[in-house]
Amino acid sequence: MPEAPFPLADTHCHLDLMTPETLAAVAAKAPAAGVSSCFVPGVSLSSGSSSSRILENFKSSAVKIFFMLGVHPGYLQDFSEKDFQKQAELRRPFMIGEIGLDRRFEDRFSGAYQEQCLRSQLVIARESDIPVSLHIVGRHERALGIIREFPGIRGIVHGFSGSPELAREYLRSGFLIGIGPLVLNPACRKLRKAVAEIPPDLMVPETDAPFMFRNDGILKTPALPDLLPDIIRETAALQKRSHEETLKAVSRAIAGFLPEEEEKSPAVRSLTT
Ligand SMILES: [Zn+2]
Prior knowledge:
This protein has helices at about 20-30, 50-55, 80-90, 110-125, 140-145, 165-170, 190-195, 230-240, 245-255, 265-270; strands at about 10, 35-40, 65, 95-100, 130-135, 155, 175-180, 205. It is of the alpha/beta class. The strands form two sheets. It has a five-stranded parallel β-sheet with strand order 4-5-6-7-8. The protein has a three-stranded parallel β-sheet with strand order 1-2-3.
């Protein structure tokens, strides 16, 4: 497969949480959609250790897989600062994520505990100069306050669905905006208004597969990485820019997160050699 002129990455795609059938569909369709890599977020400390299963099922050498390390705010039961630190030293992740705050899980993990775990992961990210993938639901003000305690931190605020004002706050705090399948839904007016205003080289596409759906009414087809061209086309239309200009800018934004080939993390190396 020839290299796409503007290679795309699905910057938030849970390949390790997919069924073998879904993985096979991703492997078959992603390269033709110009998707040359997938960033796989960690949700618990054991995420990514199932990489050999992915390798087995993901028979596509055209798509590179990069694993993050992180504990999601809904999976904090096994979080330990020490173990996280150990894993970070061992795995040398290219990104730390997905980490953050989620109001929906506060009955299991208090807001204060979520904030404590977020801070301890941000400490490592800043010390090692590793970008972060943030998962924030309903707690944006708190999250912005916390990331501002870490000047110089950078990353992506994943699955953004907020207002133009909120997007600007994250941009000012060093975070790019992760735009997913919701932008294709005309009912998501606030998000579409934000997307119309965010410079395209400050946003990155994602699907959060397999947890989101295509905007196809009652069919409920899962959104997989081959949806990225649609997300970019819609972004270009909302911004009244040419498709090529948007594609080029988004691809440039993605390149800022792609690890250097020679510095691949051990997990990636084992998948590509
Ligand atoms: Zn996710």
